[in-house]
Amino acid sequence: MKKTVLYLLAMIALIVGLMYAGIRCVDYFKNRSARPSKDFSQFVAITDVVPDAILEIRYFSTYNFVGTRVDGYLQPTALLTKVAADSLKAVSDELKTLGYRLKIYDAYRPQKAVDHFVRWAENIPDTLMRQFFYPDLDKSVLFDEEYIAAKSGHTRGSTVDLTLFDMRTEKELDMGGTFDWFGPESHPDFCGNPDTQEFTGDNSKSLAGRSITSEQFCNRMILREAMMRHGFKPFPTEWWHFSLVDEPFPDTYFNFPVRQL
In terms of residue numbers, what domain contains 27? Predict the structure, then answer.
């Protein structure tokens, strides 16, 4: 009898242990994608797919809102998932017929770079680049107004920041504002309705009375419409920011460095 009881207790302990292990295993696989990954096997260099793209990788340089090279940018290249790069090529092919080339500011961004942004934003006295990127804002509001966040769609590998280069003038197309400008002037609906492409001139959201022209609004729409036609969705607060609608890694945040693959 005693042996039978001990056997039953051992079996119960084993079953409970397996159940607990199973739960832990399920939790592991459920949450694994939320952990930073270093697997770059599904990524390509944009210029391998879109060879005429122009690169100006701001976070590899010191001309960015931080004012220093950002962690994780080892070379001035731009990476995307293969499917996103293929869609971007379709955008490039269309816009080349209109005399434009794509100019890339940023694409895949490692989590260590996002962590760098967070540390910078928490260091309130560091306002080295304020006059260039956020002159109308106090740095203390950057988290509350979501200019800085602990997670970024860029880190999932299918988001790109870009503008257009006009081959006729040999200059960037005038978008009425610089990349990474923190303010309502960067919103796609600033001074117009992007859904109807109607220019309204309404600059009431600007804290300093800034504005853009109808031509500058139209230029933003050229980029926006081409990106949307080929599977990208716009971002509501940045005219330069687009993410692939059917991104292959919607829950994975990668952390391998930006360098030539």
Answer: 1-34
Closest C-alpha among 35, 33, 125, 36 to residue 72:
36
Q: Which of 126, 108, 82 is closest to 253 using CA atoms?
A: 108
Residue 103 inside a domain? The answer is yes
User: Which among 192, 191, 110 is positioned nearest to 157, based on CA atoms?
Assistant: 110
So what's the pLDDT on residue 14? 43
- CB neighbour list of residue 67: distance below 8 Å, 6 or more residues apart: 126, 128, 129
pLDDT tens per residue, range 41-85:
999 999 999 999 999 999 999 999 999 999 999 999 999 999 999
Judgement on whether residues 63 and 50 belong to the same structural domain of the protein: yes
How does pLDDT run across 142-195, given as a tens digit for each residue?
999 999 999 999 999 999 999 999 999 999 999 999 999 999 999 999 999 999
Rounded to the nearest integer, the mean pLDDT of the chain is 90
Q: Is there a domain that residue 251 lies in?
A: no
Examine the residue annotation and report whether 238 is marked as an active-site residue of this protein. yes
Are residues 140 and 25 part of one domain? Answer: no
CATH number at 84 reads 3.30.1380.10
Is the same domain home to 196 and 79? yes
Q: Do 69 and 186 belong together in one domain?
A: yes
Query: Helix, strand, or coil here: 122?
Result: helix
Neighbours of 47 (CB within 10 A): 17
Which residue reads 């006295």 in tokens?
125
Annotated catalytic residue, options 56, 185, 238, 247: 238
How many domains does the chain divide into?
2
CA-wise closest residue to 212 among 230, 231, 248, 239: 239
Note whether 222 and 124 are within 8 A (CB).
no
> Do 123 and 172 fall into the same domain?
yes
In degrees, rounded to 5, the angle at the alpha carbon of residue 27 between the alpha carbons of residues 21 and 28 is 85
